[in-house]
Amino acid sequence: MKRFIHATLATLAMTGALGAADITQEKLRQAQSDDANWMMYGKNYLGWRYSELRQINTTTVSQLTPQWIFQTGTLGKVEGTPLVYDGMMYATGPTNHAYGWTWRRGGRYGATARHCRRE
Fold first, then answer.
1. Could you tell me which residues come within 8 angstroms of residue 84 by beta carbon, excluding any fewer than 6 positions away?
2. What is the tens place of the pLDDT at every residue in 63-100?
3. Distance between CA atoms of 78 and 107, rounded to whole angstroms?
4. Core-most of 27, 54, 92, 96, by most CB within 10 Å?
5. Distance of alpha carbon 82 from alpha carbon 41, whole angstroms
6. Dihedral, CA atoms, 81, 89, 11, 32, nearest 10 degrees?
7. CA–CA separation, 23 vs 88, rounded Å?
8. Is the pLDDT of residue 110 over 70?
C-alpha cells in the first residue's frame, strides 16, 4: 500500500495536476460528499468504498456497458484503487508503473505513464 501511495503521488507531481495546497485535511474529511473526486482508498477515512451518486442503482446497473479499456503494456494487473482528483484519474500498475488519465471533450482519453524508481 505504501508503494501505491508513493507511486500515485509521484504521478500527481510529475503531471503537474496537483498543487501543494489543493488537497487539504478538510477536503479529505469531507471526501464522502465530494461527488467529483475519489481522493483516497475507500473514498473516505471510514473506508466506505461507495459513492452516493444516484445515476447507477438496482434498476440501471444492468444497462452498463464498457466504454473504455486501458492496456498497461506490462505483465500483471492493476490491483490498487484508482484515485480521481480535479478531472484526472490515477492508478498504479505492475512493475512500479503509475498512470494518469484525463477525460477530454469529444470523448477522448489522454494517458500519461511513468515508471517510478525504487527508493
1. 36, 37, 38, 39, 90
2. 999 987 878 888 888 878 888 888 888 888 888 888 88
3. 23
4. 92
5. 8
6. -60
7. 14
8. no
Q: Which class for 1: exposed (0-12), middle (13-18), buried (19 or more C-beta within 10 A)? A: exposed
Contact of 119 with 9, CB cutoff 8 Å: no
Q: Which residues contact 100 (CB under 8 A, 6 or more apart)?
A: 11, 12, 15, 17, 88, 89, 90, 111, 112, 114
Set of cell numbers at residue 38: 475519489
Q: State how far the Cα of 16 lies from the Cα of 110, in Å rounded to an integer.
A: 14
Q: What is the DSSP letter of 38?
A: B
The sign of the dihedral angle between the CA atoms of 10, 51, 70, 22 is negative
Q: Which three cell numbers stand for residue 22?
A: 489543493
Instruction: List all residues 6 or more positions away from 17 whose beta carbon is below 8 Å from its beta carbon.
Output: 85, 86, 88, 100
pTM of the complete model beyond 0.85: no
